[in-house]
User: Fold this.
Amino acid sequence: MNTVTIQSLKDYVDQEVQLNGWVYHLRSVGKIWFLILRDGTGLVQCVVVNNEVSPDVFQLEHQLTQESSVTVTGIPRLEPRAVGGVELGVRDITIHHIAEEYPITPKEHGTAFLMDHRHLWIRSKLQHAILKVRHQVIKASRDFFDQNGFTLVDSPIFTANAVEGTTNLFKVDYFDQNAYLTQSGQLYQEAAAMAFGKTYCFGPTFRAEKSKTRRHLTEFWMIEPEMAYCDLEENMDWAERYVEYVVQWCLEHCQQELQTLERDTTKLEKVQRPFPRITYHEAADILRRKGADFEVGSDFGGTDETLISEEFDRPVMVHRWPADIKAFYMKRDPQNSELALGVDMLAPEGYGEIIGGGQREEDFDILIKRIRDHDLPVKPFQWYLDLRKYGSVPHSGFGLGIERTVAWICGTKHIRETIPFPRTIYRIEP
Amino acid sequence: MNTVTIQSLKDYVDQEVQLNGWVYHLRSVGKIWFLILRDGTGLVQCVVVNNEVSPDVFQLEHQLTQESSVTVTGIPRLEPRAVGGVELGVRDITIHHIAEEYPITPKEHGTAFLMDHRHLWIRSKLQHAILKVRHQVIKASRDFFDQNGFTLVDSPIFTANAVEGTTNLFKVDYFDQNAYLTQSGQLYQEAAAMAFGKTYCFGPTFRAEKSKTRRHLTEFWMIEPEMAYCDLEENMDWAERYVEYVVQWCLEHCQQELQTLERDTTKLEKVQRPFPRITYHEAADILRRKGADFEVGSDFGGTDETLISEEFDRPVMVHRWPADIKAFYMKRDPQNSELALGVDMLAPEGYGEIIGGGQREEDFDILIKRIRDHDLPVKPFQWYLDLRKYGSVPHSGFGLGIERTVAWICGTKHIRETIPFPRTIYRIEP
Assistant:
């Protein structure tokens, strides 16, 4: 007899199979009872009829509790009214473990309670669906870059220098010295792009935002491509191709999850190239027109981002930023040296910035001047400056935050639910 | 005109194309000179003939230095004697940047010097090949688990408790408390497997091995699958299927790199299922027979692993270990409670342990007793114990170290060369 998953049940109609799973729900109507089983790949209704199973099995109705683990033997049959179009006619049930009273019930629980039980909460329908989407977002991301000739070059997590101050950095006791946890793999990707042409890194990054609320993650995942011989325009081409690919992939492969999450997928279907590209100053004009409390020259706040993104039905790329609010390594616009060749991509529907990137300064003399202008020490950047000594080329890249992207695609405002075990200022357990 | 990569040059024979890259080598024979160009996807010989280019371009021979960045225009033609089977008849060369004297030369350099220049060293042929293999090992790993119904569930990096002592843990200043960097994502995968059935995590893990030499990495990458309703035997089935898949994938997709590395691929071709499975005591018999200085009951040292693996032409799985030297969560053998249902996989040719794993204890009472027997505090394990309260099932998993696997497949003994920017007790730069 085959042991199969709920997802594949349709392939075994009218053949006796075994399912391993957990009791999701029980419902009785006298001589019949229904067991909704979950196995991680889906849910299925198992029908237990009095005279089709042994008396011992039939009376399990009174023994089985939510989340008890069981092996169910039965025959799948097509049933259009059932979830997934299949139900299971039960022949036998074997109990592995009777669960104690399960703490998560259909009633409302507070966030703290649910987060304390995150190890169990991920079994729940909505959390399960969000993390399935996360899986596909990551898969699509890797596939996109792999298929387009990028080489994965992992950036290191430990870095020696807190070059831009320690405010948002986590410090680690590293034997007899200090180390810091990376906030971005970009500088290393620049070295990698000079060796491999097109590269990316994908891993956790860390930000110790002391001033922020419990809603901010201290540990989050970022994918950062970098391309040699690539200017800002081509960088934006890559960014929109990539985001389009991820969204379309999820529409295709997460239908059921997006339905569970009640996501309005018509909004996602519109995410197709070309994405609008506007300058920072055009974005500022939008804000002025809409009467936002915004000072030209400053960075956008969350509300500003929402006001801008509302104007468009797909992600919008804002480029050419005031150089003063951007990092030292960003190349200036040859047409206007007050502007940096940076680009942010704002997700639609108010989900905020999902991508930040730009073209990097490739000239040694200018770069060293910028480092000094920013009051940064030169020594820790010697290796980075080397990239401008030995065959420097125009190059660009960007970083996409996985959690924000998952939040947007799932249509959830709670970033803490887009990562399996969120870490915030107040939480590092479970 | 098409801008193409060296890798795709064969598709453009007799069509004028542009290549963006860096000067790898120059060689002159009077009225002809040869430029070996690298672009991250390969190397190609570009032939510059006196009367086929302008005098300005022809005299670049005297200007171009190693690693200078150039765009070369020309016509690819088949040339069986050339690397890749193609060479480029040059029409034009545009210089982006003339490199200063490149520090890495064909002469021998010491390891410290090369590691100080790791940001440049990754451009070198062998390092480049190793990191390309790493890329494919990681891609094959993800593909394998994705294709087999596993869900990626990232385990957290920050953990609250140093449950097994702080000796090998990195401590982080986490706002007003301490946090530690993860050594393994396993316990979280156990929670995930109960929600998703089959899961894996893939990310950096950290080990502060103070006593070890500069050869040990403090930061390395691990992939850790976990399966609900899975016993030790099935766990070994998954491990051998997975390792076979990765090795065969690399043989197919890294031919050129393995050739560059002068890897004896006939050894890798033998890596096919079934892999031998021997018990710990059978392994100990091998050591005794070979006269090793080994005490039964202890763990294998590096030399022991080599002596065992020499007996086989493919990876060997050693299972059923003395429970005393294995972790508290490992299930005991029902046939012999002195033994734990653990398994290590040793790579052939003396490359040592690449996998460690086993079946987990699923019984609440036994598990809590083990925690106490190991003098561990119960409180930090409450969430982990919950997994045995709410639908506990037999489950198993393992972890594979990416760097060791890359070292084995590449045939390199230097683990520090299998990661782009290695971190060791003495090195966190560049």
User: Anything to note?
Assistant: Chain B has two domains: 2-97, 118-418. Chain B touches chain A through 92 residues (CB under 8 Å). The domain at 2-97 of chain B is CATH 2.40.50.140 (OB fold (Dihydrolipoamide Acetyltransferase, E2P)). Chain B has 13 helices and 18 strands.
